[in-house]
Specification:
- By secondary structure, this protein is mostly beta strands.
- The protein has one domain.
- 0% of the residues lie in helices and 51% in strands.
- The chain is built from no helices and 7 strands.
- A hairpin with a 7-residue loop joins strand 3 and strand 4.
- It is globular and about 30 Å long.
């Protein structure tokens, strides 16, 4: 689990995954809120994601190495 400081507007995250199965990333804006699906891919992935404003928490499900870098 990766915890981020809240976002304040447009900020992308660069995401990569080198596994063979699901790569799922959710963003949460408040405790108790429903998550927003940011990435749902099977296999390797390399791309950019735009988390919703106010995102405070990001969760990742992956079967291989992954990275998330906020830009």
């Amino acid at each position: 689990m990766l915890k981020l400081t809240p976002t304040h507007g447009l900020r992308t995250m660069r995401a990569t995954h080198d596994g063979e199965s699901n790569f799922i990333v959710y963003g949460y804006s408040r405790i108790g809120s429903y998550p927003e699906l940011l990435v749902n891919e099977i296999g390797g992935y390399k791309g950019k994601v735009l988390p919703p404003a106010g995102t405070r928490l990001v969760t990742v499900k992956a079967d291989g190495a992954w990275t998330l870098v906020r830009r």
